[in-house]
Amino acid sequence: MKHYKLLLFLTLGFLSQVCIGQNQQATNEAEFKPSPVNQPGSEYPMVNEKGQVRTQISAPEATKVQLDIGGVKYDMAKNKEGVWTGESAPQDEGFHYYQLNIDGASVPDPGSLFFFGANRWGSGIEVPAHDQEFFALKNVPHGKVEQILFSSKSTDTTRRAFVYTPPKYDLEPQKRYPVLYLQHGYGENETSWPNQGRANLIIDNLLAEGETKPFIIVMTYGMTNEIEFGGLRDFDIQPFQTVLVDELIPYIDAHYRTKADKENRAMAGLSMGAFETKLVTLNKPEVFSHYALFSGGIYEPEELQDRTKPELIFISTGSKERPDAVKSAVSELQKEGFNAVSYVSEETAHEFHTWRRSLYQLAPLLFRAQK
Amino acid sequence: MKHYKLLLFLTLGFLSQVCIGQNQQATNEAEFKPSPVNQPGSEYPMVNEKGQVRTQISAPEATKVQLDIGGVKYDMAKNKEGVWTGESAPQDEGFHYYQLNIDGASVPDPGSLFFFGANRWGSGIEVPAHDQEFFALKNVPHGKVEQILFSSKSTDTTRRAFVYTPPKYDLEPQKRYPVLYLQHGYGENETSWPNQGRANLIIDNLLAEGETKPFIIVMTYGMTNEIEFGGLRDFDIQPFQTVLVDELIPYIDAHYRTKADKENRAMAGLSMGAFETKLVTLNKPEVFSHYALFSGGIYEPEELQDRTKPELIFISTGSKERPDAVKSAVSELQKEGFNAVSYVSEETAHEFHTWRRSLYQLAPLLFRAQK
């Protein structure tokens, strides 16, 4: 178990928000609890309802230890036993990558579980979110997350993907399913959506509430990390597009009970994965009918000329990113007759909580025309 | 991709062994290469054909940095730029857990991938093995490794297991398969066999060579880590036996196309997982017909009275463990008419290379009586 503990921070979260306005003193003493994504049995790192992160590590001979989170390094303090403790300023709700710095060495915090982001496996922490029930591990029927290894001639490699199949997939062996191809961002990989993204739990929960149709999700590495960050102009979509469209999709259609047509195929991505989604869906109008961009670009109506209108265009962003640009773009698409939907994740930035919420909002809109 | 690179150390490994005897000087300069289980793009840690491990980390302000592997701490040395480098003595072939120590802080090496062992996710390294082709990622048909989440009433939790299905499982939807339940050791968990154990790749390779019948493998957490290491006398098998036999096996038989009878069910485990295997197979003769213990105990003939003889008893160990005890026990079993097989992994100890090889030896012996 990756220790997806069933936390009930929901009520405490609301109380804490009330307190912040009324009594800053009381809130400063907000109780710290172990992060739900700690290593088994590890008390630290901790988080409180204000979103502060507290880390602790034994380093008796060290002269300087820092907590590095959200682009800020916080000095930690040593006690008589050589144990260092430190706290961050409040962080946004949801998941964050972080690390420790011990006498100049940047290392993972051995107390946390590890997640792939920033081009490496490193520490992650879960700051209590008022809406965290939607991605919690609950006692509902669970789908599977399957690791497949598929042969790619174009790259001369064996490549990995994760495939989510919904809870009843094995119990209804005649039924066929639509497919969502879901991409991570720069510095991440195919593990990011099933691990910190909790894609499987989000869909399990929606299905348990009858809020979405069942579908398969396929998550593979988008080959985004071979360029320098920000070098989008130099990014060539062709190698990944070939792997995705000419190799992975045929493999999935051969090995899973898919509805193998455009109407039953969606593509979505976050950040650089959204950039990829836009390029691939524009290049391959015959392959996908549902397009979704999370925190990464928009579609202009003129980019979508000369094709049947897609079934759905979904564009999302965090409220701390560029919500006005997204709303405006979707409004333009709607004026031109597109079925376009915008979503703004409140009080979040370019981080995974925005993208978990985006998937949660997107799923019920997918494949609605299908029986 | 977990960067299972296709290494060809095989030839170099043999050459190196020849050199060791003839020219110690030359061998001391054995070339270091990045470990195949490094983080993407990470040059360090490195290994050479002698089995030495070389680590490197930037820690400009540190006063003491050590490499901690195989129960020994090796001092590393700092250069002018504040980068520390150090080397271990030669290690046995195969996989090893290790960590770094920076001014008294024990931390994972940020250069390596992370594996669950010693009760935590930490660094691992792959020392070139002369026989490593048997667990290499090759361009052969690959089965899937599926994460399932199943409800456990007896523990009031949702629990995780990984399920390996062979390459043709999805392509032959009428076929049913036998099942091996495969347990990790103390301090490890359900990820240990599919990650550092490479169980899926070992079976993929055997199947590609026609050396084994296809079967499903189920790997779940054996609840071994809640006791103090060595406290076997206090270990109560009942909670895990209930999860395994009364909850997980029915879930697997409901969700997978299994041959759901004793003749088609095997149990194997390593170290404390072998101890569990012995207890469960002795308690539940009606559930399993193939028993396998890797580096953890033996069966005495008198323990197997009052039951139909199992189809197979397989007992293995590393040559650096207790090979004579294993051979002697198997000889006793054979005298009593049991189909018992021993296997000794040459030049390995109580580590994962012994257990990878044990699985490789066991698989062809499983379910032979079945069509």
Automatic annotation (TrEMBL), chains A, B:
Residues 1-21 form the signal peptide. It comes from Salegentibacter salegens. Pfam families: Esterase. InterPro entries: AB_hydrolase_fold, Esterase-like, Ig-like_fold, Ig_E-set, Mycobacterial_A85_antigen. Gene3D superfamilies: alpha/beta hydrolase, Immunoglobulins. CDD domains: E_set_Esterase_N (cd02858). The keyword Signal applies. The keyword Magnesium does not apply. This is Enterochelin esterase. GO terms for molecular function: acyltransferase activity, transferring groups other than amino-acyl groups. Keywords: Signal.
